[in-house]
Structures are given as C-alpha cells and as structure tokens.
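hiii so um. not sure if this is the right channel but i have a protein structure encoded as tokens and i wanna go backwards to a sequence. like what aa goes where. can anyone help
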C-alpha cells in the first residue's frame, strides 16, 4: 500500500493507537497532519516518523470548541484537500462514577463525540475535494457492552449511531465513514500501557478475566484492519464500526 500524495489528519497522535498509526502511515509515504493536546508528545511522534518534512503538528485541546475552530481554520489555510481524517483522540478522562454529574458527562462527550462532530463538519469541504475520501473513527467494545464507565460507554455507543447516520449523508460525495471498535490492547502511552506500569496486578487480572488469547494484544496487530478501512477500496465498510477485540467482548 502506497499513500503517496495522500493527506491524512490524525487526532490523538501523541500516544497509543494514534501515534502508532502515524508512525506506520509515514512509512507508506502519506503526508500527515498530527493533532494532540500536547505539543511535546507530538514532537516525539514526529521524531519517530519517516519523511518528517512532509508532516505538520498542531496542538489543540478539544475541550474548548474555539480551539477546534481555530485548528480547522489553520488547516483550511494550509491545505487544499484532505483524503482521510482519523479520530483517535478519546478516553474516559478519569470519570468513573456510576452517576456522573452534568459537567463530567460533558467533558467525556466533548472529547469522544462533540469534537468529532465539529471537526468533521468544519473540514467536510476539504474531504469533498478529494476524489475518494474517508472519515475513520475509533470507538470501543464499550459501545456494545457495559465494560467501561457510564459516560464513556454512552459516548462510544452514540459514536456508532453517528457513523451509521453520517455515512448515509456523505456517500453521495464518495466519502466513506467507518471505524473500529477495539477492546483492550497495549501501545506506548495508552490506557493498558499505563495500567501495566501503575498496577501490574490489575493488568494481569484483566488478561486472565477478559483476554481469551491469554495475552494483551499489541496495537500493531490492528494495523491490517486500519489500513484496509482507509484504503481506496473501502466502500463496503461505510456506516460500519468494525469489531476487532481479539475475542474479548461478550456480545453478539
């Protein structure tokens, strides 16, 4: 797969699946727009990428809608088209209450859902200028079963509905709207990596109770499905969030 002349925007590019995907896609000759709330961590991702001069980094805290508008303005000023938007930014943000308060719901939904809505809307015209473009989202098996916090589960479930609905509106522009619902996996800086570092007992217990493959998957094992979903021959997947949890989930 060669992504020469393809321009790909990646949110959450400073760690975890976003950083891994950025480093991999840079080796396929893509030009990357790397976005994260940490410029310092973005520079580390960029350091690990090939063809560094082809890529750009933008620091953006998605909790403030003004930041998203400012980011979108800069991208529209510097790029004439986009081929792929990849939404990796997300997380539970430490909200673990069974009954979160309003502000906690808003914080989690803003990162996992509302920022996605706004960025897709703001950059839609750049996607239309590509002959064949993709909006790729990262959900979670938490959308299928109650394994995460209430606020996180609800936001990822809503994301699945959004992807299906949006795909019907954008297919006329030859835009594929798709994504993945992964389970637990490990890569530099992600939730499982932090759990392993901070609470090895809990990490091992998670593997014992949840992972039928008896080990923690590595993020690199998700690369085949990710590259398939952003390829030019991906239209069969539009409207679908593909489950890829290594058999972890308890749902149909």
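sure thing!! here u go:
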């Amino acid at each position: 797969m060669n992504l020469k002349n393809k321009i790909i925007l990646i949110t959450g590019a400073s760690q975890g699946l976003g950083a891994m995907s950025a480093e991999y896609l840079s080796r396929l000759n893509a030009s990357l727009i790397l976005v994260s709330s940490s410029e310092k961590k973005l520079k580390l991702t960029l350091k690990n990428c090939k063809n560094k001069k082809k890529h750009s980094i933008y620091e953006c805290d998605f909790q403030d809608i003004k930041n998203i508008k400012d980011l979108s303005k800069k991208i529209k000023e510097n790029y004439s088209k986009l081929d792929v938007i990849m939404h990796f930014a997300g997380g539970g943000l430490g909200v673990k209450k069974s009954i979160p308060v309003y502000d906690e719901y808003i914080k989690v939904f803003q990162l996992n859902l509302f920022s996605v809505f706004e960025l897709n809307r703001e950059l839609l015209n750049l996607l239309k200028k590509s002959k064949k473009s993709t909006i790729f989202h990262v959900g979670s098996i938490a959308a299928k079963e109650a394994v995460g916090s209430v606020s996180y589960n609800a936001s990822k479930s809503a994301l699945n509905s959004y992807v299906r609905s949006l795909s019907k509106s954008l297919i006329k522009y030859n835009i594929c709207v798709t994504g993945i619902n992964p389970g637990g996996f490990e890569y530099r800086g992600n939730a499982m990596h932090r759990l392993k570092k901070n609470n090895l007992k809990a990490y091992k217990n998670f593997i014992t109770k949840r992972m039928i493959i008896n080990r923690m998957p590595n993020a690199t094992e998700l690369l085949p499905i990710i590259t398939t979903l952003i390829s030019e021959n991906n239209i069969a997947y539009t409207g679908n969030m593909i489950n890829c949890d290594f058999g972890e989930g308890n749902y149909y």
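oh and The radius of gyration is 17 Å.
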